[in-house]
From TrEMBL:
Keywords: Membrane, Signal, Transmembrane, Transmembrane helix. PROSITE patterns: VWFA. InterPro entries: CLCR (IPR051266), VWF_A (IPR002035), vWFA_dom_sf (IPR036465). Residues 1-33 form the signal peptide. The keyword 4Fe-4S does not apply. SUPFAM superfamilies: vWA-like. Residues 34-44 have a biased composition (Polar residues). SMART domains: VWA. Residues 32-52 are annotated as: Disordered. This is VWA domain-containing protein. The keyword NADP does not apply. Residues 52-238 form the VWFA domain. It comes from the Bacteria.
Length: 443
């Protein structure tokens, strides 16, 4: 009878050990599964302000008209707001302001100052908020301009995005102040307050006014036709506030030429750019550093088809160093592109920053040029310009390959490593097999 002696351990475990030895011999170890490091946003989000939303609800007399799904406009709005309150994330700070809820139509003097806080902006007691909404009845006038100013005060200041959602069925019948002028006034303050408008009445004058308010602040306008549409749009506005960036970009005004352009350090910047305009900014970059920049332009109004956004890095003489482009046709929420450029590459002598105010001797000045080919549809205002957000960062120059040849070389290196590992494993496995046969023959 032939007895086979079992080798110590299992073949799979032995093979794993051999593979590890082979990779270690070649200086390559299999990657370990580590938990991902938190991004800078994840690391700091806990210390930022919570997203803030203030909902302005029109409670004027016309909100009693029953023309949405066979129900009155106010009842449709109340139901949608209830649904939104139920879906609020726990960290959101939410408030409700009314207009036209107190004084009757017969009292225009007081009715045109009638805007009040129904539920203050803060962490929401859902039962209290819904109860307050349920008590509202269509009553008075429509002072939208004053309500917008009041909502801005309700939201206060902070690093979080502040969003106003206006639900109304009519245009302001109490101006001045004109609500479009108020919206532009709020946008000019640079506090990143966005106003979304939702119209419950399908009237051209109402639509134009609500579009003007939204366009001035970088918000959106929706012509509401059903209960479901209103609910979905309200929820989207709240979610957009939660998803928006938490740090308010610094306001900056680009120029039309590099020599007079503002000098930017790493950070996030906000500007506005008119249709088919060029905006220029300057960034100092030291030798051995890499410039990384990205730009997004938001078509916050009706624009023509076929458009593009171009981000160029040039030297002081206007010679292009690198570019990034984005183009499209049809409806989109944002057009964005980016670029990277390393200062270790040769630069034009005119790119030197020697003697430039605010720039150290020996630094190079890179001119960032933002261009767009948007065009407005008929009747669309060009002022204010389209919202533009520019992100600038300067890092140590990347060791990434500059071209396909080096990338191909790195691929061949990995192929050689894998081939060598396979050869070593094959030799070891052959030696083990011969050893097992010899042991089997001896027994």
């Amino acid at each position: 009878m032939i007895t086979r002696r079992r080798l110590p351990g299992r073949p799979a475990a032995l093979l794993t050990a051999l593979l590890t030895m082979a990779f270690a011999t070649l200086g390559v170890l299999p990657a370990q599964a580590d938990s991902p490091s938190p991004s800078p946003t994840e690391q700091t989000a806990g210390g930022d302000d919570a997203p803030k939303v203030d909902l302005i609800l029109d409670v004027s007399g016309s909100m009693g008209i029953a023309d949405i799904d066979g129900r009155s406009r106010i009842s449709v709005a109340q139901q949608s707001i209830d649904d939104v309150i139920d879906a609020l994330p726990p960290e959101a700070e939410f408030g409700i302001r009314t207009l036209g809820a107190t004084y009757p139509v017969s009292d225009k003097t007081d009715g045109c100052t009638d805007t009040k806080v129904l539920y203050p902006v803060g962490h929401t007691d859902k039962v209290e908020a819904k109860t307050a909404v349920a008590t509202l009845r269509p009553t008075g006038w429509t002072p939208i301009g004053l309500a917008l100013r009041g909502a801005a005060q309700d939201l206060g200041t902070g690093t979080a995005t502040r969003r106003v959602v206006l639900v109304t069925d009519g245009e302001d019948d109490c101006a001045p102040p004109d609500p479009c002028d108020v919206a532009r006034e709020l946008a000019a303050q640079g506090t990143h307050l966005v106003v979304d408008t939702l119209g419950l009445a399908h009237d051209d004058k109402v639509r134009q006014q609500l579009l003007c308010i939204a366009n001035a602040t970088g918000g959106t306008y929706t012509d509401v036709h059903s209960q479901q549409q209103l609910t979905e749009r309200l929820k989207q506005s709240v979610q957009h506030s939660d998803n928006s960036y938490r740090a308010t970009p610094a306001n900056v005004t680009g120029t039309d030429q590099c020599a007079t352009a503002p000098l930017l350090s790493p950070g996030v910047y906000a500007d506005r750019e008119k249709f088919s305009e060029h905006r220029v900014y300057r960034v100092p970059v030291k030798n051995g550093q890499e410039l990384r920049a990205s730009v997004s332009v938001t078509p916050d109004r009706a624009v023509a088809r076929d458009y593009g956004v171009l981000l160029q890095a040039t030297d002081g003489s206007g010679q292009e160093l690198v570019r990034g482009t984005d183009a499209g046709s049809g409806r989109t929420d944002v057009a964005a592109t980016g670029l990277r450029w390393s200062a270790t590459r040769s630069a034009s002598p005119t790119a030197s920053a020697t003697g430039t105010t605010g720039v150290a001797n020996g630094d190079q000045v890179v001119c960032l040029v933002v261009s767009n080919s948007f065009a407005g549809q008929p009747g669309v205002q060009s002022d204010p310009g389209l919202p533009l957000e520019l992100t600038v960062d300067v890092k140590a120059a990347s060791s990434a390959p500059d071209g396909p040849a080096l990338g191909l070389g790195r691929g061949w290196i990995m192929l050689l490593v894998l081939t060598g590992a396979g050869l070593v494993c094959g030799l070891l496995w052959g030696w083990i097999a011969r050893w097992r046969i010899r042991i089997w023959q001896e027994n």
